[in-house]
Write a structure and sequence with these properties.
The complex is a heterodimer of chains A (about 170) and B (about 150). With about 170 residues, chain A is of the alpha/beta class. Chain A is about 40% helix and about 15% strand. Chain A has two domains: about 30 residues; about 120 residues, 3-Layer(aba) Sandwich (Oxidized Rhodanese, domain 1). In chain A, strands 3-7-6-4-5 form a five-stranded parallel beta sheet. Chain A has a two-stranded antiparallel ribbon with strand order 1-2. With about 150 residues, chain B is mainly α. In chain B, a hairpin with a 4-residue loop joins strand 1 and strand 2. In chain B, helix 2 packs across helix 4. The chains are: A alpha/beta (about 170), B mainly alpha (about 150).
Protein backbone atom coordinates (compact mmCIF):
# COMPACT_ATOMS: atom_id res chain seq x y z
CA UNK A 1 0.00 0.00 0.00
CA UNK A 2 1.26 3.44 -0.90
CA UNK A 3 0.60 4.90 2.56
CA UNK A 4 3.63 3.00 3.80
CA UNK A 5 5.76 5.50 1.86
CA UNK A 6 5.36 7.95 4.72
CA UNK A 7 2.14 9.40 5.99
CA UNK A 8 3.85 12.45 7.52
CA UNK A 9 5.15 13.43 4.06
CA UNK A 10 1.65 13.05 2.63
CA UNK A 11 0.12 15.25 5.34
CA UNK A 12 2.82 17.89 4.93
CA UNK A 13 2.28 18.00 1.18
CA UNK A 14 -1.48 18.27 1.72
CA UNK A 15 -1.01 21.25 4.05
CA UNK A 16 1.30 22.92 1.53
CA UNK A 17 -1.25 22.40 -1.27
CA UNK A 18 -3.90 24.08 0.90
CA UNK A 19 -1.63 27.04 1.71
CA UNK A 20 -0.65 27.38 -1.95
CA UNK A 21 -4.29 27.25 -3.09
CA UNK A 22 -5.30 29.81 -0.46
CA UNK A 23 -2.58 32.19 -1.65
CA UNK A 24 -3.46 31.76 -5.34
CA UNK A 25 -7.16 32.14 -4.52
CA UNK A 26 -6.63 35.41 -2.66
CA UNK A 27 -4.32 36.80 -5.38
CA UNK A 28 -6.71 35.81 -8.19
CA UNK A 29 -9.69 37.20 -6.28
CA UNK A 30 -7.93 40.54 -5.78
CA UNK A 31 -7.25 40.97 -9.53
CA UNK A 32 -10.45 39.39 -10.86
CA UNK A 33 -13.38 41.58 -11.94
CA UNK A 34 -15.67 39.06 -10.24
CA UNK A 35 -13.69 39.23 -6.99
CA UNK A 36 -15.52 39.39 -3.65
CA UNK A 37 -14.49 40.77 -0.26
CA UNK A 38 -12.40 38.33 1.76
CA UNK A 39 -14.42 39.02 4.87
CA UNK A 40 -18.06 38.73 3.86
CA UNK A 41 -21.01 40.06 5.77
CA UNK A 42 -23.66 37.36 5.89
CA UNK A 43 -25.39 38.31 9.10
CA UNK A 44 -29.01 39.36 9.25
CA UNK A 45 -29.79 43.03 9.82
CA UNK A 46 -31.99 44.12 12.69
CA UNK A 47 -34.12 47.04 11.57
CA UNK A 48 -36.21 47.18 14.74
CA UNK A 49 -37.40 44.84 17.52
CA UNK A 50 -40.06 43.40 15.27
CA UNK A 51 -38.22 43.54 11.97
CA UNK A 52 -35.20 41.49 10.93
CA UNK A 53 -34.11 41.38 7.29
CA UNK A 54 -31.55 39.19 5.45
CA UNK A 55 -28.04 40.50 4.78
CA UNK A 56 -28.78 41.01 1.07
CA UNK A 57 -31.68 43.42 1.69
CA UNK A 58 -30.81 47.00 0.72
CA UNK A 59 -32.56 50.34 1.13
CA UNK A 60 -33.38 50.31 -2.59
CA UNK A 61 -35.51 47.17 -2.21
CA UNK A 62 -39.30 47.30 -1.66
CA UNK A 63 -40.18 48.11 1.98
CA UNK A 64 -39.99 45.33 4.55
CA UNK A 65 -42.97 44.89 6.88
CA UNK A 66 -43.31 43.27 10.30
CA UNK A 67 -45.78 40.62 11.41
CA UNK A 68 -48.00 43.33 12.93
CA UNK A 69 -48.08 45.26 9.65
CA UNK A 70 -48.73 42.04 7.71
CA UNK A 71 -51.72 41.36 9.98
CA UNK A 72 -53.06 44.86 9.38
CA UNK A 73 -52.74 44.45 5.60
CA UNK A 74 -54.34 41.03 5.87
CA UNK A 75 -57.50 42.62 7.27
CA UNK A 76 -57.82 44.99 4.32
CA UNK A 77 -59.08 43.88 0.94
CA UNK A 78 -56.69 45.84 -1.21
CA UNK A 79 -53.87 43.38 -0.82
CA UNK A 80 -52.50 40.23 -2.47
CA UNK A 81 -50.15 37.93 -0.57
CA UNK A 82 -47.70 35.99 -2.70
CA UNK A 83 -46.11 32.83 -1.32
CA UNK A 84 -42.64 32.52 -2.88
CA UNK A 85 -42.00 28.98 -1.65
CA UNK A 86 -42.17 25.80 -3.73
CA UNK A 87 -45.60 24.34 -4.41
CA UNK A 88 -45.39 21.36 -1.99
CA UNK A 89 -44.58 23.75 0.88
CA UNK A 90 -47.37 26.09 -0.18
CA UNK A 91 -49.86 23.23 -0.33
CA UNK A 92 -48.83 21.99 3.12
CA UNK A 93 -49.90 25.32 4.60
CA UNK A 94 -49.97 28.97 3.63
CA UNK A 95 -51.54 32.32 4.54
CA UNK A 96 -55.26 32.37 3.64
CA UNK A 97 -55.93 33.49 0.06
CA UNK A 98 -52.21 33.78 -0.67
CA UNK A 99 -51.25 32.90 -4.24
CA UNK A 100 -48.32 30.62 -4.98
CA UNK A 101 -45.55 32.13 -7.10
CA UNK A 102 -42.33 30.21 -6.35
CA UNK A 103 -39.30 32.36 -7.00
CA UNK A 104 -37.28 29.32 -8.14
CA UNK A 105 -39.88 28.46 -10.77
CA UNK A 106 -41.00 31.98 -11.62
CA UNK A 107 -41.22 31.58 -15.41
CA UNK A 108 -43.42 28.51 -15.05
CA UNK A 109 -45.81 29.93 -12.43
CA UNK A 110 -46.02 33.61 -13.37
CA UNK A 111 -48.40 33.09 -16.34
CA UNK A 112 -50.79 31.23 -13.99
CA UNK A 113 -51.12 34.12 -11.53
CA UNK A 114 -50.45 37.10 -13.81
CA UNK A 115 -54.14 37.74 -14.50
CA UNK A 116 -54.91 37.69 -10.75
CA UNK A 117 -52.34 40.36 -9.94
CA UNK A 118 -53.20 44.03 -10.07
CA UNK A 119 -50.76 46.90 -10.21
CA UNK A 120 -53.17 49.01 -8.09
CA UNK A 121 -53.18 46.59 -5.19
CA UNK A 122 -50.56 46.14 -2.51
CA UNK A 123 -48.56 42.99 -3.18
CA UNK A 124 -46.84 41.38 -0.23
CA UNK A 125 -44.30 38.62 -0.83
CA UNK A 126 -43.27 36.13 1.82
CA UNK A 127 -41.42 32.84 2.05
CA UNK A 128 -40.22 30.55 4.79
CA UNK A 129 -38.79 33.11 7.21
CA UNK A 130 -35.88 35.48 7.69
CA UNK A 131 -33.36 32.82 6.62
CA UNK A 132 -35.05 32.65 3.25
CA UNK A 133 -34.59 35.23 0.51
CA UNK A 134 -37.09 33.97 -2.05
CA UNK A 135 -39.55 36.71 -0.98
CA UNK A 136 -36.92 39.39 -1.60
CA UNK A 137 -35.88 38.00 -4.98
CA UNK A 138 -39.51 37.58 -6.02
CA UNK A 139 -40.27 41.20 -5.08
CA UNK A 140 -37.26 42.37 -7.11
CA UNK A 141 -38.45 40.34 -10.11
CA UNK A 142 -41.98 41.70 -9.85
CA UNK A 143 -40.63 45.23 -9.76
CA UNK A 144 -38.98 44.60 -13.13
CA UNK A 145 -42.45 43.56 -14.39
CA UNK A 146 -43.79 47.00 -13.48
CA UNK A 147 -45.35 46.32 -10.07
CA UNK A 148 -44.81 49.23 -7.70
CA UNK A 149 -46.86 48.65 -4.54
CA UNK A 150 -44.62 45.85 -3.34
CA UNK A 151 -43.78 44.94 0.22
CA UNK A 152 -41.84 42.07 1.75
CA UNK A 153 -42.89 40.21 4.87
CA UNK A 154 -39.58 38.64 5.93
CA UNK A 155 -41.00 36.92 9.01
CA UNK A 156 -42.92 34.85 6.48
CA UNK A 157 -44.69 31.58 7.02
CA UNK A 158 -42.69 30.75 10.17
CA UNK A 159 -43.72 33.92 12.07
CA UNK A 160 -47.29 33.79 10.80
CA UNK A 161 -47.76 30.16 11.77
CA UNK A 162 -46.04 30.56 15.15
CA UNK A 163 -48.36 33.46 16.00
CA UNK A 164 -51.33 31.10 15.64
CA UNK A 165 -52.88 33.16 12.85
CA UNK A 166 -55.33 31.66 10.34
CA UNK A 167 -53.79 29.27 7.83
CA UNK A 168 -55.04 27.48 4.77
CA UNK A 169 -54.10 24.18 3.14
CA UNK A 170 -54.50 23.31 -0.53
CA UNK A 171 -54.76 19.92 -2.15
CA UNK B 1 -10.81 -9.48 -5.42
CA UNK B 2 -8.05 -7.58 -3.63
CA UNK B 3 -5.95 -7.74 -6.80
CA UNK B 4 -8.80 -6.25 -8.78
CA UNK B 5 -9.38 -3.41 -6.33
CA UNK B 6 -5.66 -2.63 -6.22
CA UNK B 7 -5.21 -2.89 -10.01
CA UNK B 8 -2.84 -0.17 -11.24
CA UNK B 9 -5.06 0.63 -14.23
CA UNK B 10 -8.02 1.06 -11.92
CA UNK B 11 -5.97 3.54 -9.86
CA UNK B 12 -5.25 5.53 -13.02
CA UNK B 13 -8.90 5.41 -14.08
CA UNK B 14 -10.07 6.66 -10.67
CA UNK B 15 -7.39 9.36 -10.68
CA UNK B 16 -8.76 10.58 -14.02
CA UNK B 17 -12.43 10.41 -12.97
CA UNK B 18 -11.88 12.20 -9.64
CA UNK B 19 -9.42 14.67 -11.19
CA UNK B 20 -11.63 15.65 -14.12
CA UNK B 21 -14.72 15.88 -11.89
CA UNK B 22 -13.02 18.29 -9.49
CA UNK B 23 -11.41 20.41 -12.22
CA UNK B 24 -14.80 20.74 -13.90
CA UNK B 25 -16.46 21.59 -10.58
CA UNK B 26 -13.85 24.20 -9.72
CA UNK B 27 -13.98 26.27 -12.91
CA UNK B 28 -17.49 27.67 -12.45
CA UNK B 29 -16.79 28.41 -8.78
CA UNK B 30 -13.62 30.29 -9.68
CA UNK B 31 -15.46 32.26 -12.37
CA UNK B 32 -18.39 33.17 -10.08
CA UNK B 33 -17.16 33.44 -6.46
CA UNK B 34 -20.22 35.46 -5.44
CA UNK B 35 -22.60 32.70 -6.53
CA UNK B 36 -20.49 30.02 -4.86
CA UNK B 37 -20.34 32.06 -1.63
CA UNK B 38 -24.16 32.11 -1.68
CA UNK B 39 -24.21 28.33 -2.10
CA UNK B 40 -21.88 27.99 0.91
CA UNK B 41 -24.15 30.34 2.86
CA UNK B 42 -27.18 28.24 1.89
CA UNK B 43 -25.63 25.20 3.54
CA UNK B 44 -25.92 27.15 6.80
CA UNK B 45 -22.97 25.42 8.39
CA UNK B 46 -20.01 27.82 8.20
CA UNK B 47 -20.03 31.01 10.30
CA UNK B 48 -20.57 34.13 8.15
CA UNK B 49 -17.00 35.34 8.73
CA UNK B 50 -15.47 32.33 6.95
CA UNK B 51 -17.89 32.02 4.04
CA UNK B 52 -16.10 34.29 1.56
CA UNK B 53 -12.56 33.10 2.26
CA UNK B 54 -13.80 29.52 1.94
CA UNK B 55 -15.51 30.35 -1.36
CA UNK B 56 -12.35 32.07 -2.63
CA UNK B 57 -9.89 29.30 -1.75
CA UNK B 58 -11.79 25.98 -1.97
CA UNK B 59 -12.12 25.94 -5.79
CA UNK B 60 -8.34 26.33 -6.13
CA UNK B 61 -7.75 23.36 -3.83
CA UNK B 62 -10.12 21.39 -6.09
CA UNK B 63 -8.41 22.63 -9.27
CA UNK B 64 -4.84 21.93 -8.15
CA UNK B 65 -5.65 18.55 -6.60
CA UNK B 66 -7.56 17.59 -9.76
CA UNK B 67 -4.61 18.60 -11.95
CA UNK B 68 -2.12 16.81 -9.70
CA UNK B 69 -4.17 13.61 -9.81
CA UNK B 70 -4.29 13.64 -13.60
CA UNK B 71 -0.60 14.51 -14.00
CA UNK B 72 0.45 12.11 -11.28
CA UNK B 73 2.05 14.55 -8.86
CA UNK B 74 1.49 14.50 -5.07
CA UNK B 75 -1.05 11.77 -5.79
CA UNK B 76 -1.70 10.61 -2.22
CA UNK B 77 -1.81 14.14 -0.77
CA UNK B 78 -4.19 15.38 -3.47
CA UNK B 79 -6.39 12.35 -3.10
CA UNK B 80 -6.36 12.78 0.69
CA UNK B 81 -7.45 16.41 0.42
CA UNK B 82 -10.22 15.64 -2.07
CA UNK B 83 -11.30 12.71 0.12
CA UNK B 84 -11.52 15.03 3.14
CA UNK B 85 -13.51 17.54 1.07
CA UNK B 86 -15.88 14.78 -0.01
CA UNK B 87 -16.35 13.68 3.61
CA UNK B 88 -17.11 17.33 4.45
CA UNK B 89 -19.60 17.64 1.58
CA UNK B 90 -21.26 14.36 2.55
CA UNK B 91 -21.69 15.47 6.17
CA UNK B 92 -22.95 18.91 5.12
CA UNK B 93 -25.44 17.39 2.67
CA UNK B 94 -26.63 14.79 5.19
CA UNK B 95 -27.13 17.41 7.91
CA UNK B 96 -29.22 19.55 5.56
CA UNK B 97 -31.06 16.50 4.24
CA UNK B 98 -32.12 15.70 7.80
CA UNK B 99 -32.91 19.35 8.60
CA UNK B 100 -35.06 19.53 5.46
CA UNK B 101 -33.12 22.41 3.90
CA UNK B 102 -33.26 22.79 0.12
CA UNK B 103 -29.63 23.49 -0.78
CA UNK B 104 -30.66 25.24 -3.99
CA UNK B 105 -32.32 28.08 -2.11
CA UNK B 106 -31.19 27.56 1.46
CA UNK B 107 -34.80 27.39 2.56
CA UNK B 108 -36.72 24.72 4.42
CA UNK B 109 -38.83 22.59 2.15
CA UNK B 110 -40.81 19.41 1.92
CA UNK B 111 -40.45 19.36 -1.86
CA UNK B 112 -39.76 15.74 -2.94
CA UNK B 113 -37.65 16.97 -5.89
CA UNK B 114 -35.26 18.70 -3.48
CA UNK B 115 -34.93 15.43 -1.57
CA UNK B 116 -34.24 13.48 -4.78
CA UNK B 117 -31.59 16.01 -5.75
CA UNK B 118 -30.01 15.65 -2.28
CA UNK B 119 -30.00 11.85 -2.53
CA UNK B 120 -28.31 11.97 -5.96
CA UNK B 121 -25.62 14.39 -4.68
CA UNK B 122 -24.99 12.16 -1.66
CA UNK B 123 -24.57 9.07 -3.83
CA UNK B 124 -22.19 10.90 -6.16
CA UNK B 125 -20.04 12.13 -3.26
CA UNK B 126 -19.83 8.69 -1.65
CA UNK B 127 -18.78 7.08 -4.96
CA UNK B 128 -16.08 9.72 -5.51
CA UNK B 129 -14.94 9.28 -1.90
CA UNK B 130 -14.49 5.53 -2.43
CA UNK B 131 -12.46 6.23 -5.58
CA UNK B 132 -10.23 8.69 -3.66
CA UNK B 133 -9.66 6.12 -0.92
CA UNK B 134 -8.71 3.50 -3.50
CA UNK B 135 -6.15 5.93 -4.98
CA UNK B 136 -4.68 6.74 -1.54
CA UNK B 137 -4.26 3.10 -0.56
CA UNK B 138 -3.33 1.48 -3.86
CA UNK B 139 -1.38 4.11 -5.80
CA UNK B 140 1.91 2.73 -7.10
CA UNK B 141 2.84 5.80 -9.15
CA UNK B 142 1.88 4.02 -12.38
CA UNK B 143 1.68 6.48 -15.31
CA UNK B 144 2.66 9.44 -13.16
CA UNK B 145 5.04 12.37 -13.35
CA UNK B 146 6.27 11.67 -9.85
CA UNK B 147 7.60 8.30 -10.99
CA UNK B 148 9.27 9.94 -13.98
CA UNK B 149 10.96 12.45 -11.64
CA UNK B 150 12.06 9.69 -9.28
CA UNK B 151 13.69 7.80 -12.15
CA UNK B 152 15.65 10.89 -13.22
CA UNK B 153 16.95 11.57 -9.74
Amino acid sequence: MSLEKGSSRIFLQAILIVIFSLAIGIIYNSISKEGITVKGNWSKKVVSDSLIVPYSYTKDDPPAISLGQAMTYFQTHNVIFLDARLEPDYKAGHMPKALNLPFEEFEQYYPKVESLLSKDKNIITYCDGTECEASLFLARLLRTKGFKNLKIFFGGWTEWNKAGLPVQKSN
Amino acid sequence: MKELIGNKWLVVLFRLIVGITFIYASLDKIAHPDQFARVVYNYRILPGLFINIFAISLPWVELFCGLFLILGLFIESSSLLLGLLLIGFTIALSVNFLRGVDIACGCFTTDPNAKKEGAWLLTRDVVLLLMSLQVIFYNRDFLSLQKAFQKKS
